[in-house]
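User: Run a structure prediction on this.
Assistant: Running it now.
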Amino acid sequence: MKKQYSIVIGLAAFLVVFFQNCGKPPASQSSGESSGVTSVDQKFNKYQVAGLNTVAVWDDSKQRFLDVDLSNGSVQAYEQAGRVAGATYQLSNEQLVSLKGILQQAEVCEPVEKSAQQKDIACTMVYVYPYATLVSQNQQTKLGEQTSGCDVPVDLCDDKSNQLKDWSKSLVDSL
Protein backbone atom coordinates (compact mmCIF):
# COMPACT_ATOMS: atom_id res chain seq x y z
CA MET A 1 0.00 0.00 0.00
CA LYS A 2 2.82 2.37 0.91
CA LYS A 3 4.55 1.60 -2.42
CA GLN A 4 1.39 2.43 -4.42
CA TYR A 5 0.95 5.67 -2.48
CA SER A 6 4.53 6.77 -3.23
CA ILE A 7 4.10 5.92 -6.95
CA VAL A 8 0.95 8.07 -7.12
CA ILE A 9 2.72 10.97 -5.33
CA GLY A 10 5.74 10.60 -7.62
CA LEU A 11 3.58 10.60 -10.75
CA ALA A 12 1.68 13.69 -9.55
CA ALA A 13 4.95 15.51 -8.82
CA PHE A 14 6.25 14.53 -12.27
CA LEU A 15 3.14 15.94 -13.95
CA VAL A 16 3.31 19.20 -12.00
CA VAL A 17 7.02 19.75 -12.72
CA PHE A 18 7.07 18.85 -16.41
CA PHE A 19 3.75 20.30 -17.56
CA GLN A 20 3.76 23.62 -15.72
CA ASN A 21 4.38 25.69 -18.90
CA CYS A 22 1.44 24.40 -20.93
CA GLY A 23 -0.80 27.40 -20.28
CA LYS A 24 -1.48 30.11 -22.84
CA PRO A 25 0.70 33.20 -22.58
CA PRO A 26 -1.04 36.28 -21.14
CA ALA A 27 -0.93 38.13 -24.48
CA SER A 28 -2.99 35.53 -26.31
CA GLN A 29 -5.49 35.19 -23.45
CA SER A 30 -6.25 38.89 -23.41
CA SER A 31 -6.57 39.32 -27.16
CA GLY A 32 -8.60 36.19 -27.79
CA GLU A 33 -6.16 35.16 -30.54
CA SER A 34 -4.37 31.85 -30.22
CA SER A 35 -2.14 32.31 -33.25
CA GLY A 36 -0.39 35.57 -32.34
CA VAL A 37 -0.29 38.63 -34.57
CA THR A 38 -2.49 38.63 -37.63
CA SER A 39 -1.43 40.10 -40.94
CA VAL A 40 -4.08 42.81 -40.52
CA ASP A 41 -2.02 44.27 -37.66
CA GLN A 42 1.24 43.87 -39.57
CA LYS A 43 3.00 46.83 -41.21
CA PHE A 44 4.97 46.27 -44.40
CA ASN A 45 7.79 47.89 -46.29
CA LYS A 46 6.89 47.72 -49.96
CA TYR A 47 9.37 47.84 -52.80
CA GLN A 48 9.18 47.27 -56.54
CA VAL A 49 10.34 44.05 -58.11
CA ALA A 50 13.01 45.28 -60.52
CA GLY A 51 16.27 44.11 -62.05
CA LEU A 52 15.50 40.41 -61.72
CA ASN A 53 17.70 37.90 -63.51
CA THR A 54 16.18 34.65 -62.28
CA VAL A 55 13.13 33.26 -60.56
CA ALA A 56 13.90 30.01 -58.73
CA VAL A 57 10.92 27.70 -58.17
CA TRP A 58 10.87 24.62 -55.95
CA ASP A 59 9.55 21.42 -57.57
CA ASP A 60 8.42 19.43 -54.54
CA SER A 61 7.39 16.36 -56.55
CA LYS A 62 10.93 15.81 -57.87
CA GLN A 63 12.85 17.53 -55.04
CA ARG A 64 14.61 20.01 -57.32
CA PHE A 65 15.00 23.69 -58.03
CA LEU A 66 13.98 25.17 -61.35
CA ASP A 67 15.91 28.35 -62.17
CA VAL A 68 14.05 30.39 -64.78
CA ASP A 69 16.24 32.86 -66.70
CA LEU A 70 14.04 35.89 -67.36
CA SER A 71 16.12 37.11 -70.29
CA ASN A 72 15.63 34.08 -72.54
CA GLY A 73 13.17 31.70 -70.82
CA SER A 74 15.62 28.86 -70.26
CA VAL A 75 14.93 26.69 -67.22
CA GLN A 76 17.83 24.93 -65.50
CA ALA A 77 16.84 22.12 -63.15
CA TYR A 78 19.02 21.41 -60.13
CA GLU A 79 18.49 17.88 -58.83
CA GLN A 80 19.14 16.54 -55.33
CA ALA A 81 17.76 19.68 -53.65
CA GLY A 82 19.98 21.97 -55.69
CA ARG A 83 23.31 20.14 -55.48
CA VAL A 84 23.53 18.69 -59.00
CA ALA A 85 22.70 20.36 -62.31
CA GLY A 86 20.03 18.43 -64.16
CA ALA A 87 18.04 18.85 -67.35
CA THR A 88 17.56 22.12 -69.18
CA TYR A 89 14.14 23.16 -70.46
CA GLN A 90 12.80 26.09 -72.48
CA LEU A 91 9.71 28.10 -71.61
CA SER A 92 7.25 28.75 -74.38
CA ASN A 93 6.92 32.39 -75.39
CA GLU A 94 3.48 32.40 -73.75
CA GLN A 95 4.87 31.12 -70.42
CA LEU A 96 7.66 33.72 -70.40
CA VAL A 97 5.29 36.58 -71.24
CA SER A 98 2.92 35.36 -68.51
CA LEU A 99 5.71 35.32 -65.89
CA LYS A 100 6.97 38.75 -66.88
CA GLY A 101 3.38 40.04 -66.73
CA ILE A 102 3.02 38.80 -63.15
CA LEU A 103 6.31 40.40 -62.09
CA GLN A 104 5.74 43.65 -63.96
CA GLN A 105 4.78 46.35 -61.44
CA ALA A 106 4.69 43.74 -58.65
CA GLU A 107 5.68 44.87 -55.18
CA VAL A 108 7.33 42.84 -52.45
CA CYS A 109 5.73 43.22 -49.02
CA GLU A 110 8.32 42.78 -46.28
CA PRO A 111 7.13 42.85 -42.65
CA VAL A 112 8.54 45.81 -40.71
CA GLU A 113 8.89 43.69 -37.57
CA LYS A 114 8.95 39.93 -37.39
CA SER A 115 6.26 38.68 -34.99
CA ALA A 116 8.74 36.26 -33.44
CA GLN A 117 10.85 39.23 -32.30
CA GLN A 118 8.08 40.52 -30.05
CA LYS A 119 8.71 39.47 -26.47
CA ASP A 120 5.11 38.91 -25.36
CA ILE A 121 4.22 36.28 -27.97
CA ALA A 122 4.82 32.54 -27.72
CA CYS A 123 5.36 31.08 -31.22
CA THR A 124 5.51 27.55 -32.51
CA MET A 125 8.65 26.26 -34.17
CA VAL A 126 7.86 25.70 -37.84
CA TYR A 127 9.66 26.12 -41.13
CA VAL A 128 7.78 26.75 -44.37
CA TYR A 129 9.94 26.46 -47.46
CA PRO A 130 9.76 29.40 -49.88
CA TYR A 131 7.65 28.73 -52.96
CA ALA A 132 9.90 30.95 -55.10
CA THR A 133 13.08 32.99 -54.85
CA LEU A 134 13.55 36.23 -56.76
CA VAL A 135 17.19 36.68 -57.75
CA SER A 136 18.73 39.95 -58.88
CA GLN A 137 22.38 40.88 -59.16
CA ASN A 138 22.47 42.21 -55.59
CA GLN A 139 19.99 40.14 -53.59
CA GLN A 140 17.74 37.11 -53.21
CA THR A 141 14.20 37.41 -51.91
CA LYS A 142 12.61 34.21 -50.63
CA LEU A 143 8.85 34.41 -51.05
CA GLY A 144 6.59 32.68 -48.54
CA GLU A 145 9.36 31.48 -46.23
CA GLN A 146 8.39 31.20 -42.56
CA THR A 147 10.73 30.43 -39.67
CA SER A 148 8.10 30.37 -36.90
CA GLY A 149 4.37 29.94 -36.57
CA CYS A 150 3.99 33.67 -35.88
CA ASP A 151 5.93 34.90 -38.90
CA VAL A 152 4.24 36.85 -41.62
CA PRO A 153 6.40 35.91 -44.59
CA VAL A 154 7.98 38.19 -47.16
CA ASP A 155 5.82 37.83 -50.26
CA LEU A 156 4.45 39.63 -53.28
CA CYS A 157 1.73 42.11 -52.37
CA ASP A 158 -1.93 41.75 -53.20
CA ASP A 159 -2.95 38.98 -55.60
CA LYS A 160 0.47 38.77 -57.28
CA SER A 161 1.58 36.04 -54.84
CA ASN A 162 -1.34 33.80 -55.83
CA GLN A 163 -0.65 34.47 -59.50
CA LEU A 164 3.02 33.50 -59.12
CA LYS A 165 2.10 30.36 -57.14
CA ASP A 166 -0.36 29.33 -59.87
CA TRP A 167 2.23 30.03 -62.57
CA SER A 168 4.86 27.99 -60.68
CA LYS A 169 2.45 25.08 -60.28
CA SER A 170 1.64 25.11 -64.01
CA LEU A 171 5.38 25.17 -64.83
CA VAL A 172 6.11 22.18 -62.57
CA ASP A 173 3.12 20.30 -64.00
CA SER A 174 4.25 20.96 -67.59
CA LEU A 175 7.76 19.52 -67.12
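The chain has a mean pLDDT of 77.
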